[in-house]
Amino acid sequence: MSYKTELKKRSDEIEEILLAYAPKGQAPARLIKAMNYSLFAGGKRIRPVLLMETVRLFDGPVPLARPLAAAIEMIHTYSLIHDDLPAMDDDVLRRGKATNHVVFGEAMAILAGDGLLNCAMETMAAHIPYDDEVYLHGYLRAMSEIITAAGHNGMIGGQVLDILSEGGGPDKEALDYIHKHKTGALLTAPLRAGAMLSGAGKAQLQDISTYAAAVGHSFQLVDDLLDIEGEAGKVGKSIGKDAADGKLTYPFVYGIDATRQKIAQLYDSAVKSLRPFGEKGKFLKETADFLAKRDH
After folding, report:
1. Residue 266 pLDDT exceeds 60
2. Angle 218-221-223 from CA coordinates, rounded to 5°
3. Measured between alpha carbons, how far is 246 from 162 in angstroms, rounded to an integer?
4. C-beta of residue 150 within 8 angstroms of C-beta of residue 156
5. Among residues 241, 247, 227, 245, which one has the least CA distance to residue 170?
6. What are the b/e assignments for 34-65, b being 16+ CB within 10 Å?
7. In the chain, what are the domain boundaries?
8. Is it the case that residue 29 has pLDDT exceeding 60?
9. Which one is predicted more confidently, 285 or 241?
10. Gap between the Cα atoms of 35 and 41, Å rounded
11. Cα–Cα distance between 14 and 137 in angstroms, integer?
12. pLDDT for res 294
C-alpha cells in the first residue's frame, strides 16, 4: 500500500474522531457553525495522525488516544483562525477556503477560536480514565504535554516573538525560538503525548522526541520555502506574505540553498532516531519524507 493511501486511511480515521467530538450543545448556532467551519475545512490532519500512529507504535490504548487526537486538531485549528485575523497575519485564504473572519466576521472568528481551544480542554478532561490504573498517569502526562505546547511557553510564545521580530534584521537566536515554539511545539506534542500515554520508556521517549523535533523544524522550513516558491492553488493559502510582512524566516537568515540543506539534515536525523523501532517505524519514516518534500 502506498504512503498516500496509508495517509488517507489515517486521515479518514481522524475525520471520524472529529465528528465524534466536534463542538455541539446549547451554544448559539452561529458560533457552532463558525467553529466547525474551520475544524472541517480540510487539511492533512498530520498532528492527530502522528499522535495515533505513535500510540500504535508503542502498542498503547487507541481508544484513550482519540480524545487527545481530537483536542490537538482543535487547538491547531483555533491557532489558524487567530493567525489569519487582521491583527495577526491578515490572510483571506486558508486550506483553499475563505478564512473564518472573512465568512463570519472578526468578532465571531475570535470567539470561534476561543471556543475551539476550550472545547479541546473540555474534551481531554471529560475522558480522563480515573479508574484505569495502567494508563491514568500516562493520559495525564499526555494531556499536560499538549496543554503546555499550546501555551505561553509553547506555541503562543513563538507567535509573540514572530510578531515582535517583524521588520527586523536577521536574528538566528530569535529564529530558532520561533521555529521551536510557534510550529515545532504543536508538532512535537502529539508524538511525545502518544508515547507518554502508552507508557514508553525513557530511551524510547527520547528517540521519539528527537524525531518529533526534526520533523517539526523541517515542517516550518518547508513552509518558509513554499511561501517563496509555492503555488497558492496547492498550498491553500496566500503566497509571498512572509517577505511582504518582514517575517523572520530561515531563507531570509540563511538563504534558500542553506534551507534546503537543513531540511535534508533534519530528515536524516528523523530517520536515524527511528532505527530502534525497526519496521514498526515505517509510516513515521515515510511521513518525515512526505513532509520534507511536500508542495502544499
Report:
1. yes
2. 110
3. 10
4. yes
5. 247
6. bbbbbbebebebbbbbbbbbbbbbbebbeebb
7. 3-293
8. yes
9. 285
10. 10
11. 24
12. 84
pLDDT at 31: 98
Task: Give the model confidence (pLDDT) of 215-240 as tens digits.
Answer: 999 999 998 899 888 665 555 556 66
User: Alpha helix (H) ranges present in 22-165?
Assistant: 29-39, 46-57, 62-83, 100-104, 106-126, 136-150, 155-164
* Residue corresponding to grid cell 490504548: 61
How much is the average pLDDT of 57-81? 98
Which CATH topology does 3-293 take? Farnesyl Diphosphate Synthase (1.10.600)
CB 242 within 8 A of CB 224: yes
All three cell numbers of 67, joined, read: 480524545
Nearest to 57 by CA among 261, 287, 288, 281: 281
Question: Could you give the CA distance from residue 188 to residue 145 in angstroms, rounded to a whole number?
Answer: 9
